[in-house]
Amino acid sequence: MRTSFIAKYPSVLVFLLALASFTIIVTILSEGFGIGVISTSFIKTLGKTLCLCLIAVAMDLVWGFAGILSLGHFAFFGLGGYMIGMWLMYERTRLIVTEALMQGQIPPTGSEVIDSIGSQIFGVVGSNEFPLIWTFADSLGLQLLLVVLVPGILALVFGWLAFRSRVTGVYLSILTQAMTLALALYLFQNDSGLRGNNGLSGLQNLPGVEAPQSIVSMWFFLASAMALGLGYSLAAWIVSGKFGSVLRGIRDNETRVRFLGYSVEGFKLAIFTLTACIAAIAGALYYPQAGIINPAEIVPIASIYLAVWVAIGGRGRLYGAVIGAGFVSLISTWFTGGKAPDIPLGFYTIKWVDWWLVLLGLSFVGVTLFAPKGIGGLFDLMKKRRARHEHTS
Amino acid sequence: MGSRLFLGGLITMLRTLFACLALMCWCQTGLAQELTVQEILQQNKKLVEKSSRKTIGPVIAQIAASNLSQAQVFLEAWGSKQVWQRRSDGLFFFGTEVAKRQYELTDPDSGEAVGEFTKKQLKQLKPNSGVRALIATALVQFQLFDPDPAKRAEALQTMERVPTAMHLAPLRLSIDNEQDADLKARKSRLERLLTISFDPDTATRVAAIQSFEGGLGVDVRATLNPLVVTSMNITSGDLPTDENIARVIKPGSEYLSMPAAYDLLVAGKLAPPATSAEDIRAALVAHIDGGQVAKISVAQLSDPEIRRQAYDRLAEQSLVPAFIGEEDIAKKLLGYRFYETFAETSVAVTDAAQAALSKIDLNVGMNQTLDLTLDAISLASIYFLAAIGLAITFGVMGVINMAHGEFIMMGAYTGYVVQQVIPNHTVSILVALPLAFAVTFAAGVVMERLVIRYLYNRPLETLLATFGISIALQQLAKNIFGTQARPLTAPGWLDGAWVMNDVVSISYIRIAIFILALIFLCVFLFIMKRTRLGLETRTVTQNPRMAASMGINPERVNMLTFGLGSGIAGVAGVAIGLFAKVTSEMGNDYIVQSFMTVVVGGVGNIWGALAGATMIGFLQKGIEWGYPSNTLAAQTYMIIFIIIFIQFKPRGIIALKGRAAGD
């Protein structure tokens, strides 16, 4: 009696179709591959939004389905970005430095090149030595592996510690928030080895690639779309199976699931770590499009925003997370970008740059109070109405 | 013999100078009794005419030490440029201008008028600022006997600032006749300090050093430290026996690495400099000849081995100095011994100084621990203040209020606004405290009525909703007050610090915050244990239905309790604003710490919050002490520690037991 997960979770097909058509339309309209209606910077915004949708899917898995309100997933996102950023920065600096040294009268030795890369990258924090964590920065393959491994292992260790001692609910949220704060504060130090609050920059340039930004941004846009599609399918596959049922069981009544003989901690740890890895991949795709990463990106508030996107979109339904992240982050960009028209009231002019956060904050309150199911809840309403309609006819 | 390297060169030089001065004073007080000021000046005529800071010292010392009653008058006149030299015979006189370009001269010794002269016949002594400083220093000893105690205190202050050998003798003389007890104590303390530095007799110096054992004064350490300053010396033979050797150092030990030792040899011109990779590169670049260096093509030179080969070939042709690498350095170092000598030559004195310093260090360390403890207590009381409101809303009611930090911010801004209206700081703070309570109490009640009461059974959603309120309030504050930090000034009587000694001090404002935290604790305990509201709160928390059936209105109690917690956060905000800047984001700094405090201490218990705050305060100060100048690292490690701590005590330090524990 096994049915395919798509049959159990038909929205996957709809979603993939929508994503594919969106991607194709954007590609056609883009500067890089198409007729040039959409500017490169907006392509980047769209690509970044897709990455945010991916991490929102991860958040929905861990919160909406397993009931773990993690306020640390943006830390994993940022770590993924740092890992890929290390390679991008190292390789690009290496190319530049080697070229410069080749201009000298005698060719440079290996250690001269490394020293010079070191002083280029770490000069800004008053050092010129490579810290230990940059050991693998010269290898794209290893660094890509680290994108998943570092946040994964952090999530594994943290999750093991937290779940093992039965920290649940709000306490877990505060604990994850503390972890995020600790990581952000650590990275803010100059001797953390990741350039302190300068962060890693120049990530939009792919080393050794001559193509203009309009093309590169399209590559990343397509890669982000593909990652989102894959991530969404994976999440749908997980929640449609037995694993997903157990997760929902844990969310609704953890004690009962434990009494039924399931290893609640194991399930929680698995989903926590998996979503951390997804978040890291999303981050590794996001930051090359953003061009810069610094510790300010992973302060706890970012993770809280993530929870809010998911809440606004609708928890416990994967498309809700995508809608929430896409909708809120795009509208945020619009309001804070100064493009929204100001509202003159005569005695006072409402500038959206100033008032957007007030509106956003109050809308959280509104959503939690009046629409606990979020925007996704609207689909339920439509379904119900149609069902009633069919019933009456 | 080895060559000397003066690491502590400056100090040594100064000390030698002072020693010479002291010696001169000593001899000349005996010999120069009969000489008048004029005679002394004539003996040193050349030095006086072209006076400079470097050469004039002995002359001033001689005049000052002459025991002549005119010495002080003359030095004062010299310092204020009133001394003139008669061109005809080169004698020196005091000059006062009686008419334009017309001066009346008086003899410096007898004080008799010599006659009037025109400016052309005279030459004014114009001591430069360096010389004037020396004169002033010499004059200080006369001020020690001044009848005015303020003048004497001033002289002591000058001597404490710049201790010199010539002050020792007059200072000793002045102690016995000193009437003022305070000044007498200061004089005798200074006398012992000067004895340590300048007395020629070793036993006296050692006794003076021992009299300071365990003293915490900065001046004692400043006097003793130069005695144990060492300089590094190198010898190729045996160690000298006539020098006060501190220790022998082996190159390659933790005190002196091989390269550093070799650099010392190089600096002493005992060895040629080592060849660095940079030197090789420079040499190779200098000898490029048609795309080749020593017949090796330039393209191959990216390999360090080949670079070395090329360099060696150049060295064979004597174009560059021979390569000196690690092995050569090690071999060369075998022929030398490195040892440190004290600038102070007396072994007894350096031994006594070291012993005294180690005792002082121990004492200072103990006092620093005390200081650190005080700091930790004050930090703990800040955390406690920030967390106590949360201990009510989160700990007792179980409501997770992410806007707690914004209530703190709101209280601080209330204080700021009150200070804009009432300029008197004392009155404004007294007004601000209850007003902040009222404002945040009202805000808390409104928030509870409008939002939180609908979410009592959904803690995660409470978190999100209150977080929404938090960012809305933050942005609102930014819109109203701007992003600039606003000052909340403490009243004048809270300025300054309570200084126990040179090591331990604590500012009054921190003491005030500690007292405020204590008051809060008492008020909280009183409300919870002794009032109707406290009783009702506890019943509603334990069992709302039962409470309702007993005639308690749970809604009203919840509202008031939440308002109380918020109000306390507002008062804490005023206190925190007194030492931290008031910004719209100040709540962020405290929210995570406050939750940590409550969780670590144990939810649902005020003693838990107290224990949590104490632990976090001490922990943070302890880590900051271990990682000075890096508070970020301290915070990081503290949070990691807390995460691990919760593993072992998931319910906090003080866990509720039995039925009170709930769930």
Structural account:
The complex is a heterodimer of chains A (393) and B (663). By secondary structure, chain A is mainly α. Chain A has one domain. In chain A, 70% of the residues lie in helices and 2% in strands. Chain A has 15 helices and four strands. Chain A has helices at residues 5-8, 11-29, 40-65, 73-102, 110-122, 140-164, 169-188, 213-240, 242-252, 254-259, 264-290, 300-313, 318-336, 352-370, 377-392; strands at residues 200-201, 292-293, 343-344, 349-350. In chain A, the strands form two sheets. Chain A has a two-stranded antiparallel ribbon with strand order 1-2. Chain A has a two-stranded antiparallel sheet with strand order 3-4. Chain B is of the alpha+beta class and 663 residues long. Among the domains of chain B are: 32-143, no CATH class; 365-661, ABC transporter involved in vitamin B12 uptake, BtuC. Chain B has helices spanning 9-31, 37-43, 45-49, 57-64, 70-79, 129-143, 149-161, 168-176, 181-198, 202-211, 218-224, 258-267, 277-286, 304-316, 326-334, 347-396, 404-421, 425-450, 459-481, 508-530, 532-542, 544-549, 554-579, 586-601, 606-626, 631-648; strands spanning 83-86, 92-99, 102-106, 113-118, 122-124, 230-235, 245-249, 292-293, 296-297, 337-342, 497-499, 505-507. Mean pLDDT of chain B is 82; it is low at 1-14, 22-32 and 659-663. Classes of the chains: A mainly alpha (393), B alpha+beta (663). Chain A: It is found in: Cell membrane. Chain A: This is Urea ABC transporter permease subunit UrtC. Chain A: The chain crosses the membrane at residues 12-38, 50-79, 140-163, 170-188, 216-239, 259-286, 292-311, 318-335, 355-379.
